[in-house]
Amino acid sequence: MKKIIKNIIYKFFKLIYKGFNNENHSIKRLFIYTFFQKIIGINRAVSWPVHFTSQIKSPHKIKNGTKNPGYAIGCYIDARNGITIEDNVFIGPKVSIISQNHSLDDYNEYIDTKPIIIRKNCLLLTNCVILPEVELGEHTVVAAGSVVTKSFLEGNQLIGGVPAKVIKKLGNYRGK
Q1: Which pairs from 12-18 meet CB under 8 Å and 24+ separation?
Q2: Catalytic residue among 51, 60, 102, 139
């Protein structure tokens, strides 16, 4: 009986959020996020559940896979130049993903650049920053507090530091 009720509740959230993915979402959290997002209006334009302390700019330029960017506390995601997030990408609390940059000659002018691409099975840990034009290969783990200023295409690696560099190679991702 509990499973039937849970499925009905998830169907309700699919009506509210066209980008809803019910994988690993707590029903209590979904009701709280929906209250802040759809009733109060914080991140109202985002078509998936977002934590009320996260900020999403240009959500229509985000192509997300099986996880919802901004679901964790305090994320800042600026997709004005586009962001592609493939399947099974975990984004931790207070992560910033910034796809647009200012001109150094005129701070009111923005530079058009390539979109950020985060390949499948990546893990972005607390307080890391992903800057414009970065591409992360499959199964790249970004250490907490790191600033990623360039692409790491190889995959199966742990990167970290300011600016980020390869810390060690990892084996293939074994999860689903």
Answers
A1: 13/49, 17/47, 17/48, 17/49, 18/47
A2: 102
Report the C-alpha gap between 57 and 55 in whole angstroms: 7
35, 71: one domain? no
Establish whether 102 is a catalytic residue: yes
Q: Are 13 and 30 in contact (CB under 8 A)?
A: yes
Residues 63 and 43 reside in one and the same domain: no
pTM over 0.85: yes
44-98 pLDDT, tens digit each:
999 999 999 999 999 999 999 888 899 999 999 999 999 999 999 999 999 999 9
Q: Do residues 130 and 116 make contact, with C-beta atoms less than 8 angstroms apart?
A: yes
State how beta strands 157-160 and 165-169 pair: antiparallel
Distance, CA of 91 to CA of 165 (rounded, Å) = 19
Find tokens 């293939």 and name the residue: 172
Task: Name the residue range of residue 144's domain.
Answer: 53-176
Tell which phi-psi region holds residue 121, choosing left (phi > 0), alpha (psi between -120 and 50) or beta: left
Q: Which helix (H) or strand (E) holds 34?
A: helix 27-34
Asked if residue 145 and residue 87 are part of one domain, the reply reads: yes
